[in-house]
Specification:
single chain, binds phosphoenolpyruvate, 254 residues, 12 helices, alpha/beta, globular
């Protein structure tokens, strides 16, 4: 049994005070569960990462970054590398979040390089994939997920891929309050595991963690987690409220 994993993506929210308050509240409220029964990570904006790492103190909550750049260093104004993030206490990096794909315009080719650079730089990537509403309505979900998995992991060795956590995040469910049903999520998670089995092997496919993300909340977390191929949750909006995020952590520990 894989330990459930819950990660909170704070997106472009909080400030220098509220990021610390939120981290401290999550750490103290989840002491009983975090680390022991559930693996927990928070993913603050870049600029607050050092303060959040400090605020989390000796708690077992890990910290992630919302993005990384493909190169380790050099003349790339405005970008931040995996080794820099590792240096300030990050363990995880989101790659290919839907807002980066669809608002910023990141391509599968770029995301593939980011996944690879994360692992090379000592970070554990959380690779997000997911279809748009019109793609689901046109019956193209499996085709889109297959293309994303194949392209985003292209050229990565089995060893590199074993460091990756996948997140299925249907774009129509992110920040909309419209969660995928547990069955809809399970179908895509099973497809992702099948694709990983074809690209690598069944053991790797079985061991890899696949999270669901898209309007996960305290009242739907347990139902989603009961699905056989869902190993945890990537939480956006509800992770900004310590009470809700702790309730989600708790429901994953049961
Ligand atoms: C996300 O940002 O990854 C996410 C799942 O957001 P929300 O939970 O708000 O839908």
């Amino acid at each position: 049994m894989k330990k459930p994993f819950v990660a909170g993506n704070w997106k472009m929210n909080t400030d220098s005070h509220t990021s610390i308050e939120l981290a401290e509240s999550i750490a103290s409220g989840s002491l009983e569960f975090a680390g022991r029964r559930v693996h927990v990570a928070v993913i603050p904006p870049f600029v607050y990462i050092p303060a959040v790492v400090k605020a989390l103190g000796t708690s077992s909550i890990a910290v992630g970054a919302q993005d990384i750049y493909t190169e380790p260093q050099g003349a790339f104004t405005g970008e931040i590398s995996a080794s820099m993030l590792k240096d300030i206490g990050c363990n995880y990096a989101l790659c290919g979040h839907s807002e980066r794909r669809h608002v910023i315009g990141e391509t599968d080719e770029l995301i593939n390089k980011k996944v690879s650079a994360s692992v090379s730089g000592g970070l554990l990537p959380i690779l997000c994939v997911g279809e748009l509403l019109e793609e689901r309505q046109a019956g193209r979900t499996n085709e889109v997920i297959t293309r994303q998995i194949n392209s985003d992991l292209a050229g990565l060795s089995a060893e590199k891929v074993s460091a990756v956590t996948l997140a299925y995040e249907p774009v129509w469910a992110i920040g909309t309050g419209q969660t995928a049903t547990p069955q809809q999520a399970q179908e895509v998670h099973a497809l992702i595991r099948k694709l990983l089995g074809e690209m690598y092997d069944n053991q790797l496919a079985e061991e890899i963690r696949i999270l669901y993300g898209g309007s996960a909340k305290p009242d739907n977390a347990a139902d989603l987690m009961h699905q056989p191929d869902i190993n945890g949750l990537l939480v956006g909006g509800a992770s900004l409220n310590a009470h809700d995020f702790i309730a989600i952590i708790k429901s994953l520990s049961e």
